[in-house]
Amino acid sequence: MKTKAYLNYIFGIICAIVIVAGMTVGTICHFFAGGFFNYGSEFSSYTSVVVTYSTAEYAGDAKIEQLKANCDEKLAGFSCYEFSMGEKLTGGELVYKYSADVDGQALAKAVEEINATIDPGDSGLNYAVVHSDSRTFVGGSKLIIFASVAISCGIVFQFIYFIFRYKLRSALTALLSGVVNLGLFVSLVAITRLPVGAELIALSAAVVLLTMIGSCVFLDRAKKNFRNEAYAKTDRADVVAVSGSESRKINLVTVLALAVAVIVLALCGIIAFAGVTVLVPYAVTILGLASCCFGTLAVMPAAHTFFDGVCEAAKNSVKSAALNDKSATRK
Amino acid sequence: MSKVKSAVICVLLAIAIVVAALFATISFPAGEIHRINSIAGGIHLGADLSGYAYATVYPKGVISQEDYESLSEEDAAVYVAVGSLYVDGSRYDDIDALKADVEKDAEIISSRIGRRGYSSYAVSVEDGISIKISVPTNYTYAAYRGIDSESENESLSAATTAISNLAADGKITLRTVDSSIELTDEAGTATTYTPRQDDLYETALVDGSHTYSIAGTDDVSEYFESITSTTFGNNTAINFKFTEEGRASFSTVTTRAASSESKTIYFFVGDTQLVSFPCESTLDQASLSLMADSVDMGQNAAITLSSVLGGEALSVDYEQITNVIASTATAGDYVALWLGVGCLLLVVVLVAASVIRYKRLGIVNSIAVIIFALVATYALNIIGIQTTFAVVFCALIALALLMVSNAVVFTEVRRLVATGRTMQTCIKEAYKNVLMTVTDMHIVLFVASVLLAAVGAGEVAACGLIMVVGTIASYVLYWFSRLMWYVLSAPVRDKFAFAGLKRVVYDDED
């Protein structure tokens, strides 16, 4: 296989552009649009309508469904991004969440209409209220710090392990791949503005773990090919390219199989909810897999070619310097 | 291996898998009331699959519309409407100052809950003056579906305690239920010590009894240098490290407690009791480790005590939380069920794909897949990992690791078969050739997963934990596949056909 060196540059440039674009979009949004990422409902400001009911009037699923249908009808003009039902011993709650900039007066009017119909016995136990001026605190900074430390430790361990098992150049490739794939993932999430929640941190860790599998497969292949006498006279960049193509099938199939698995789970999610709003975590996961796919299949061989070239050049210069020293001593 | 031996091993394995699968998926009635839940039914679900347990905390003097409606006209007159809530105007003359204090307290509560390591949680300020705290219900699947009320009540009770303890407001006090204590000094002189009746006398209760400050007027925060917790298995120890002065003062407190009738010191933050310390004798040591009644209780107490010790006491007095509301999952009632169905479907697809790709050798791969799925299910239940979508995805990555390992070795066998060697030689050689590749993958993944589980918190730690289990299972099953290849192919005459391969015969063999 003849190396198409320009491809390595193209992959590297695409990768750099995506990461820089992601970081730029994220940074701009951090200052002007409320956050580096588009934080999901659990992190955002909101207005909510809470309909409280008592089991004295609303006992059984049928009556609660009837109450919900009544409230849905009154609130139909507003775009609710999250709905949940809560239960307690004496009754329950229907919680409708809206973005903070919803028309508060119109919403209050709709709630008045609900209040006029949901408490036939005038017990005062069934009522609806609007909670405005509400915002959620992103208190999970420690979670992010701990996760970052854990992910970094994992990547550093892989680096050290690979130095002993596969030489420094492979360790550098693995290190760069982990960082690049994570960077790609974070950038894609920032660019696409998909609403993300706490699962983003866990999925970032998953991206790094998946990259580790891919780098093991590729670097092992490269190591074996460099030792293979059949490639003794082949250009080193070509050997890396051959290794890339040999490991491509396994790495590609792995990522594709995981993507299919995520799509199957997403379809099941749609069936469960009869809607598409639940698809965000699945979409974020697909972005993670896409980052892994591009990073592992395209960027990793390119990076290895680069590091291998640099290390070989350094090795050769050290060797020639040593030879020069020897010959100088002899003279 | 003889055909009989091979058949016996296969039958035993099939029985073991079927039994394990039955226990994993089917619940059994045990008597008229009790039932034994399936392993899958006992898996704890994260908030994305089972919803949140939430409570709204109101500052004292702030009431909801429901409470406001029940007031007499005269009582209601002092209240001012703020959003959908009502504020006692005689208690708070500056609503904006109250809002600022509540916001600051919400940040402190959020930070405390963040340290608790939940897979997800939310702390919101509503109407500017009430704090809504949401933590995962931690229901098992059976509890979520309403078929295990015992587990449901346990989970809700744990959530109520967690919210109540982590939102505790006020200072740290050491309390006793004894109103007077008879002390005898070394010379044998008896004196009576009267614990102080402070401003928490009416509200800080233990089982309905009033409590008194056993540390007099001391600022108890100055006793401690740090308060941490250590969890091992199902136990949590709360570790108190004393300051030099604190050590002497706590020694005096323990002397009083040891002489009291109850012989117990209660650690309170405001009017919330967090820990009780049975004290039989005077204690004079630099640190103290208390075993908590439960992991949850120990961690809640340590976090709240440490937060107050670090100067993060809440500045507003809040009403006690008595019960919490359990919400449904926002992704729908049946999302956990359908996630399970999806996983089952994936196993079926993987089994079918293995058989199509590798012919009868695919059965070996399929057995490994099924055992992996069972191991993951049992591990989620036994270790009590809170299952979220990310955890399921990590389990899939671990399964992918097993598939990649098997694919690497199968590919190597295929390559060696093309060189014209016998099947046994090819298998032996292939496993030898890829040994370090597969081992490297597992070592790297294992250590990285251990780091995620140990250093990470919440969902990340859960993902790390399932990856640790998955990586070990993958490596064991990789070698198990080797064994099953040998066992299943033993009765087959054409070993090449078993693996869907054809023997390559070179001319020089003739």
Query: Can you count the helices of chain A?
Result: 8
Count the E strands of chain A.
Answer: 6
Rg of Cα set of chain A: 28 Å
- Give the overall form of chain B: elongated
User: What profile does the largest beta sheet of chain A have?
Assistant: 4 strands, antiparallel
User: What oligomeric state is this?
Assistant: heterodimer
Describe it for me?
The complex is a heterodimer of chains A (331) and B (510). Chain A has 331 residues and is of the alpha+beta class. Chain A contains eight helices and six strands; from the N terminus they run H-E-E-H-E-E-H-E-H-H-E-H-H-H. In chain A, 68% of the residues lie in helices and 12% in strands. In chain A, the strands form two sheets. A four-stranded antiparallel beta sheet of chain A has the order 3-4-2-5, covered by helices on one side. Chain A has a two-stranded parallel sheet with strand order 1-6. In chain A, helix 1 crosses helix 5. Chain A is elongated and about 110 Å long. The two termini of chain A are 45 Å apart. With 510 residues, chain B is α+β, with helices and mostly antiparallel strands. In chain B, the strands form seven sheets. Chain B has a four-stranded antiparallel beta sheet with strand order 7-8-3-20. Chain B has a four-stranded antiparallel beta sheet with strand order 14-9-17-18. A three-stranded antiparallel beta sheet of chain B has the order 4-6-5. Chain B has three domains: 194 residues, Multidrug efflux transporter AcrB transmembrane fold; 133 residues, no CATH class; 142 residues, Gyrase A, domain 2. The relative contact order of chain B is 0.11. In chain B, helix 11 runs antiparallel to helix 15 and helix 14 packs antiparallel against helix 15. At the A-B interface, strand 2, strand 3, strand 4, strand 5 and helix 4 of A face helix 3, helix 5, strand 7, strand 20 and helix 10 of B. Strand 3 of chain A pairs antiparallel with strand 20 of chain B, so a sheet runs across the interface.
